[in-house]
UniProtKB/TrEMBL annotation:
Main subcellular localisation: nucleus
Localisation: Nucleus, Nucleolus
GO cellular component: nucleolus
SDA1 N-terminal domain mapped to chain residues: 2-93
Biological role stated in the UniProt entry: Required for 60S pre-ribosomal subunits export to the cytoplasm.
Name of this protein: Protein SDA1
Organism placement in taxonomy: Eukaryota, Metazoa, Spiralia, Gnathifera, Rotifera
GO biological process: protein transport; ribosomal large subunit biogenesis; ribosomal large subunit export from nucleus
Pfam family, one: SDA1_HEAT
Entry keyword set: Nucleus, Protein transport, Ribosome biogenesis, Transport
Organism: Rotaria sordida
Length: 94
């Protein structure tokens, strides 16, 4: 079934809030966002996801570099680049 754009945005914001409170792992949330939600045609949703991913990675590396997280995310981004979804590839290259 297809969700309404507003409902989808509320769900994404709830997931971001759970991530900010430490209830969801950064890697699992990034995988979810890249694999499922970036395939949506809703531009506001994609911008919200992109902003969160960038800010979350910056926040994780603010005090000291988290090499394990960075290498895991880099490997994941390389697999995304090999896929055929143009929107996800563009976001992975940013």
């Amino acid at each position: 079934t297809v969700l309404n754009n507003d409902i989808r945005l509320v769900i994404v914001r709830a997931l971001i809030l759970m991530r900010n409170r430490g209830l969801i792992d950064c890697i699992s949330l990034c995988e979810l966002f890249f694999l499922r939600l970036l395939q949506c045609q809703d531009r506001l949703l994609r911008v919200t996801i992109q902003t969160h991913i960038i800010n979350d990675i910056k926040k994780q590396n603010e005090k000291h570099k988290n090499h394990k997280l960075n290498s895991t995310l880099q490997n994941f981004m390389y697999t995304i680049i090999k896929e055929s979804n143009a929107i996800a590839v563009k976001m992975a290259l940013i």
